[in-house]
Here is the input.
Amino acid sequence: MQKAVFVSVLKPVDDIRLFQKIAQAWKEANYEIHSIGFEASVQNFSSIFFYPIFNFKRLNIKRLFAGCLVFYYLLLIRPQHIVCSSIEALPFCIFFKIYTLGKTKVFYDVQENYYLNILHTKVYPKILRYPLAWVIRSVEWFCSFFVTYFFLAEQCYVKELNFLGKKFIILENKPLQRFFQESTPPPLTVRKFALVGTIAEEYGIWKALSVFDKIQHYEPDSQLLIHGKCAKKDLYEKLKNLQDRHVVCKISEKPVHYEDIIRAMKLADAILMPYEINKSYEKRIPTKFYEAMALNKWIIVSDNYFWQKFFIKMNYLKVFFLDFDSLDIALDLYELLEVTAQNSEYQNYVVQEDLFWEHEQKKLSQVIQF
Here is the structure.
């Protein structure tokens, strides 16, 4: 039986995109599946093996040596195919391909534009941003000569990444259909709000809390559910101290199971998405857009021209573009939700099959020679 290895560093070994979506194509082709990644509560079973070998924070020095550990496991497993989604592991996957004299195929799942992310977010100190971004782009450029095929999580990467050539396919971050079988009737009044996924300042946690505080002036029974991973210790402690009957925090310092995130979204009437708009993020389509549409939920999101075009294309009406920095938004927000929640034009959204990952997997199966 041929073997395929799926490599990530900061994502759990059972990551929703790399393992539960992309690896499925290899599983259906009867490959033996090996997943290397961040620690998670998983068990090996027939033809599927997990290696939860990483357990450190984003800026930990151990991250520099993660690739060496990946190379060690590649030598043990001896795969025919490798799918890598982490830049620090990619050169070591390429070294393994060279070691096998080109017999191993290496696929790079591009989930981020690292160059823009480093330059336009506050994760790294200013003095390190440009040299680090330049080094990573150089590594990607070098590795591109050996990569068999690129999987792009975003349409905008086609123009942003200059090393792709013509060997790429766009596999958008659409959700798995099996998590969205049950439909819930939309509420007449929007009272439950949710902020899910990565909980951090750059993802607008304080803006969401500020907006919710204003909403409570008009709807005292409203509730905000915060559910996801909060990696920063000080922010984690602050949010835990804020918790009361109106603000429910179900956060963890480790990755949260995808099923739990979707369950939290199902409980809500509206999903808050107060993203910081910058050059690294403005053209990307968050996975939560697709998930909220599949659940027919209200989407309250930062105003962005590219996202407006996306929802027009998808013919999805239950979206409210909001300036989360405005001081007078709560009344307009609440009145809008009251009116539109009772309008059938907004209620009856028909979910199309191309909203789900299964549509993307067909494209994947067409380009990979198993």
In short: The longest strand covers residues 3-12. The two ends are 12 Å apart (CA to CA). The chain has two domains: 3-171, 178-352.
